[in-house]
Design a protein that fits this description.
By secondary structure, the chain is mainly β. The chain has one helix and 48 strands.
Length: 555
């Protein structure tokens, strides 16, 4: 069983089968020389790419165009705007209305030192006149422009203020104009060189080339990925053999679910370093495999202690946890706060407190929705209605907008004047949680609230799941096929895990997960991995991991 990461679900318009591994693309259009930097229009009927005679020796190059008609691609011809022998790096914007490219053509009669960024507008399949992007270009060399759906421009440059030979920069598109470019910082850029790059349509991750890092497979350049979380770019991860080869792997471009890139990898065990061809791979499959590979370093052997809760931001290397701060909160109890962990390539991690979620009270058990849009957690801070400091736990919720966590809000329609805690989301953002409000069967009971037109509805008690005991920490399968929770039985002082399956909207009688439950051990705060393959539990303050395939439907 495998769950998808719902931040990046694209509609596939060109392929009936996702390319699971890098595959050659449109070989019938390619020569035995160099083709690279392919971009494609949203309707998948027009491609642009660069063509030249040599990859390692400077030769004239131009942008070529091919159009598909009745399922057949036309013979590539030089694009109408590519009138100079130095045109490169075409990129069609996500809305298909503009094509950016680079060129060394003269500007106001003067020959530039290096390449500059230009664009043409695309109207009814025709390219307009080239326009020099004055707001962004420098007096050095600027290259590899791409944009997200908001129009923000990401590109490479040799300009002052960088960290290496070439750095990656961005310019915010606001009120119809580009703002002063900003360097993407030391987590993305290095003392070596960052070259061709492409921003994802939602602006949440960046795939780029690097040359010079010790773990590169090729001395000429390997592909890396960096994610944005809470407005900050994270440490990049190397794609290793999933994409990279001993040849050069370069000029990544993302369109819908496809990553297009160029490579001179060996073919049929023959090395021809001057034959650069075009390749494709599914973005969602690539990220799914990538996430699984990265988490495999830690998912069954975390080297840190967690006080209460662990959750994953989809399609990133980010974990959000809660743990004790070592101090007392305002209610004079041991304080818990919420932290972010960012993992490095070697499996080590950095840690920082998420101040926007933390208060002088106790904040714990964070959980992020499958689509990455909501983060909910438990808090003992006074609720926003009564403002009474009574130590009750309620559910607070933040939205995640453009990678930034917003200030949390008290959800009045879900919470009560009693304890409400341990939220868990489904893919359509129903929220399950427990509460000791009146009207239940036991001390704590499981409820569910639907999200309709942006509003959380009045919670409903789920009769089948509850008992005269206490149903506490819980996690629901995002597709609502099963729910796992622990049940506290006061007579024996035991807390054990139970599971219930959903069939046609009806929950089965909960049964113990006997393969996990142990006598005199409390199994707490269940959480599922993004792909659903692992169940995480807090046991004696440490994270334990259990493959779900070993107990689902086997209990």
């Amino acid at each position: 069983m495998k769950f998808k990461s719902y931040t990046l679900l694209f509609t596939i318009l060109y392929f009936n089968v996702y390319p699971q591994q890098p595959q050659s693309f449109l070989e019938q259009l390619l020569s035995d020389k160099v083709e690279y930097s392919l971009t494609i229009t949203p309707d998948k009927n027009t491609i642009y790419f660069v063509k030249t005679d040599s990859f390692y020796v400077s030769k004239p190059k131009a942008i070529y165009k091919s159009v598909k008609s009745n399922g057949v691609w036309s013979q590539p011809m030089k694009a109408s705007f590519s009138t100079h022998d130095s045109d490169s790096s075409p990129f069609v914007t996500p809305d298909g209305k503009r094509l950016f490219f680079t060129s060394r053509r003269s500007v106001n009669g003067k020959q530039p030192v290096g390449s500059n960024i230009w664009y043409v507008d695309l109207v009814n399949g025709k390219e307009g006149e080239p326009t020099f992007l004055k707001e962004v270009n420098s007096d050095t060399s600027d290259y590899s422009p791409t944009t997200d759906t908001s129009g923000n421009l990401y590109f490479g440059s040799y300009r002052d203020g960088g960290l290496g030979s070439g750095d990656l920069w961005w310019s915010e598109f606001k009120n119809g104009a580009y703002k002063k470019p900003q360097n993407l910082g030391s987590k993305v850029n290095s003392k070596f060189g960052e070259w061709g790059s492409c921003i994802s349509p939602d602006g949440m991750f960046l795939i780029f080339e690097n040359s010079g890092k010790a773990n590169n497979l090729s001395p000429a350049g390997d592909l890396y990925i960096s994610h944005k979380f809470n407005g900050e770019w994270q440490e990049p991860f190397h794609f290793d053999e999933k994409i990279n080869s001993i040849g050069s792997d370069l000029t990544p471009k993302i369109h819908d679910d496809i990553l297009y890139f160029a490579s001179n990898r060996p073919k049929n065990n023959i090395n021809n370093w001057n034959n650069v061809d075009l390749y494709i791979i599914s973005v969602s499959k690539l990220l799914d495999n990538f996430n699984n590979n990265n988490w495999s370093k830690t998912q069954c052997g975390f080297e840190f202690k967690v006080g209460n809760g662990i959750t994953f931001l989809p399609d990133t290397d980010i974990i959000v946890i809660s743990k004790p701060t070592g101090e007392l909160d305002k209610l004079n109890k041991n304080q818990y706060s919420i932290f972010k962990l960012s993992f490095n390539e070697n499996g080590s991690h950095s840690e920082s407190k998420l101040d926007i979620l933390s208060s002088e009270y106790t904040d714990y058990h964070p959980v992020i929705s499958s689509d990455g849009k909501y983060l909910a957690f438990n808090s003992t801070r006074p609720n926003a209605i009564s403002k009474v400091e009574n130590g009750k736990t309620n559910i607070w919720m933040s939205t995640i907008e453009n990678g930034s966590i917003q200030a949390p809000k008290y959800i009045e329609s879900i919470n009560s004047d009693f304890n409400d805690s341990y939220p868990s989301f489904t893919i359509d953002n129903r929220i399950y949680f427990n509460s000791d409000r009146p009207g239940g069967k036991g001390n704590m009971d499981i409820y569910v609230s639907d999200l309709i037109n942006g509003q959380w509805q009045k919670p409903m008690l789920i009769e089948e799941l509850n008992s005269v005991h206490s149903e506490n920490d819980l996690v629901v399968d995002p597709e609502e096929r099963f729910i796992i929770f622990n049940r506290y039985i006061s007579k024996t002082n035991e807390i054990d895990l139970f599971i219930s399956y959903n069939t046609n909207g009806e929950w089965s009688t909960p049964s113990e997960i006997k393969s996990i439950n142990k006598p005199n051990v409390w199994e707490l705060t269940p959480t599922l991995s993004l792909n659903g393959e692992y169940l995480y539990l807090e046991i004696n303050g440490e994270i334990k991991c259990y493959p779900t395939r070993k107990f689902l439907k086997n209990e």
